[in-house]
Amino acid sequence: MKLAWPLKTILHHSVRGIRCLLLGIMTVTARADEPPQILLCAPVAAIPGQTVKMIVRGFQLEKATEATSPEKGVSLKLIGPGLPELLGLFDVKRFGNSRVELEVTLPADYPHPQLPLKVLTSIGTAEFTLPVLPILGGQLEIEPNPGVSQSQRLTLPTWTLGLIEKPLDVDVYALHVTAGEDISIHVAAEKYGTPLDALLSIFDEQGQLIMTNDDYQGSHDAHLEFRAQVTGRVNIVVQDAQNTGGAAHGYQLSVQLIVPPLTTVPDLAPSP
Predict the structure, then answer these.
(1) Do 3 and 237 contact (CB within 8 A), yes or no?
(2) What is the pLDDT of residues 104-124, one digit of tens each?
(3) Can you tell me the distance from the alpha carbon of 192 to that of 202, in angstroms, rounded to the nearest whole number?
(4) d(CA 255, CA 225)
(5) Which of 9, 52, 98, 160 has its CA 20 to 30 A from that of 79?
(6) Between residues 4 and 187, the one the model is more confident about
(7) Does residue 65 have a pLDDT over 80?
(8) pLDDT given for residue 26 in this prediction
């Protein structure tokens, strides 16, 4: 079964993508005397109990020699030498012109929501605070997942680290819902400094579009809330609204039940 994309939606985002390519050419190079700096990581977070390989991007990182963290039980490992790199048509000032690959391993009981880390280089030290997913529900995207037949199954609640790894890439996740459940789905990318302009869509089991969202509350992140009308499977689709992609286009997908607030029960006991 293929997803039924509305022609209007496809044309709209294709035009936006072309406009981005034409207008987005902007390169800013780092001076040799600038200190090293970390701007973003992809994937955008670490996961307790797992080893996550990530690309760390910024300035002067091709001179990296070591990665460290003050937290106990944390293992950081540089994989190969750092590399100078331009992200094509993206704003180098925002997304960097060099990178280094890092292997981050957290203990299963890591208790903090963030991980302070340092990348040491031959000309100085770059410091960064890396988000950490919750101990329960954190996972990595499993590739390939470009369509319904290869979709990655999710269970509630979940926080998944994904990557739109190339232009026109689509990540599809399958979720079983029960009629009457209220579901919140959020894609955070701009929040973590990545160039992904998230487009989030939900399709029913027959491939019909239920709803979609591009920009949310003035950002390029995406958010949807919906009530399941029937019990069964829905497909959650994440892509870039500009049809771009690459090793920097990381995101965090969170899918959770919306639990209604408890109502106050009046005290019916008789007054003394």
Answers:
(1) yes
(2) 999 999 999 999 999 999 999
(3) 23
(4) 10
(5) 160
(6) 187
(7) yes
(8) 38
What local confidence, expressed as pLDDT, does residue 148 receive? 87
Ordered structural domains, the chain, with CATH = 7-21+136-257 (2.60.120.380), 37-131 (2.60.40.10)
How many angstroms separate the CA atoms of 234 and 239, rounded? 16
